[in-house]
Amino acid sequence: MPKAATRSLNAKKVPQLFVLSGATKWADPQKNPWTMPGMAAYESEGVVYAKYVLQAKPDAKIAILSQNDDFGRDYVAGFKRALGAKAASMIIAEATYETSAPTISSQLSTLKASGANVLFGVVLGKFTSQMIKGVAEIGWKPELFFVPTSASSISFLEPAGLDNAVGLISSSNQKDTMDPQWADDPGVKDYFAFMKQYMPNADLSNSNYAAGYHYATLLMTVLRACKDDISRDNIMRQAASLKEIKLPLLLPGMAVTTGPDDYLPFQQLQLRRFNGKSWVGFGDVLDDR
User: Fold this and answer.
1) Residues 279, 176: contact at Cβ < 8 Å?
2) For the chain, what is the radius of gyration of the CA atoms?
3) CA 111 to CA 62: how far, in whole Å?
4) Is 228 within the bounds of a domain?
């Protein structure tokens, strides 16, 4: 959403609930009290990856490749924040790329030469494929290799070769409705029943449908809490006072909590690892609270 639109809507006191972006700028209740994000913050995701590195490999030598924009900077900021004082010694190499760049091969070669054994790639789109394939082509085998949730789509992994993506780590807070492990889950069953009734011809392998359903259930929670008062003020009041709300497609152990000074509804994530066919969750729920 453009900043100009946000300023205008805030000036007119129009609620903008659950903006589908993890950019930190959308979670600023002091500056934009009528704008609330709907995704885990990019910074929070960076925090979760760093927490895992500290647990699993406290002596890690870390290399970071990031997109040179707010997207990349938010992830790196959260990652470094969670590493704390250890960031200076654990991060031994950093490189960035421009979205207009044709390739990122030179950055990968430089990062490999640093001797890093952990790679955090804050990449998007074609650069996801390029990074995964490029790391394999130069014979680099990081012990821990992270990509953002937004880069974890199979459509990005396939051009790189699924075998090259084995072991890749990302995160999620939502059940994968196509994963057999959730076949008997009541929330997933309700989702499929809804789709069968209202969108019977939809391609259910498209995760955007599940995401839309997921965020719609959150919005419904807010509207129901408003009861008979659906004024703008009350809508924002209820959206900013959610307490441990469970959603049908939210992973077990997670809940939505917001406050007047904390507009981030999702601050919990579970890591997941690619096994060559699908993403498999592992470990405990991690958070940025």
Assistant:
1) yes
2) 20
3) 9
4) yes
β-pair partners for 269: 286
pTM here is: 0.88
CA distance 253 to 260: 23
Spatial distance between the Cα atoms of 21 and 36, rounded to a whole number of angstroms: 10
Asked if the structure places residue 133 within a domain, the reply is yes
Residue range of the domain that includes 130: 43-173+274-280
For residue 200, give both structure tokens: 């019977």
The pLDDT, as a whole number, for residue 289 is: 67
Predicted confidence at residue 181, as pLDDT, reads 87
Q: What are the CB-based long-range contacts (under 8 Å, 24+) for 265-268?
A: 265/18, 265/36, 265/37, 265/38, 265/218, 266/38, 266/39, 266/40, 266/44, 266/173, 267/40, 267/41, 267/44, 268/40, 268/173
Query: What's the rounded Cα separation, in Å, for the pair 95 and 100?
Result: 15
